[in-house]
Amino acid sequence: MARIFICIFFLVILSACSTNQSYIESPQKGDIYIFEEAGIFFPMKVDSVFENTLYLVNSKFVFADAIPKKSEILDEEFDRSFFLIYEKEEIQRLFNEGKIIEVYR
Fold this sequence. Notes:
Layout: H1 2-25, E1 32-37, E2 40-50, E3 53-59, E4 63-64, E5 78-87, H2 88-96, E6 100-104
Antiparallel strand pairs: 1-2, 1-6, 2-3, 2-4, 3-5
């Protein structure tokens, strides 16, 4: 019984990783990236995608000690007065390095 639980656990983890990877490879307006640094989680939302460039906005809030659920990140809590500009390759690199740990669509 324990083996079945372990197998199911790993399948769920692998499924989440492949979903995150596909979202990173094909970003869309409204995607939320959860960046992590030293146990602090920073949501950033894709405002627009133009060719190989992504325009993101920061959340006004950070989360400590736990990855926020999608329902905890409200649209009005993003600061649209300032945009961060990333190339798709940079987002992929940050994901591969474990700096982006979750993607919500």
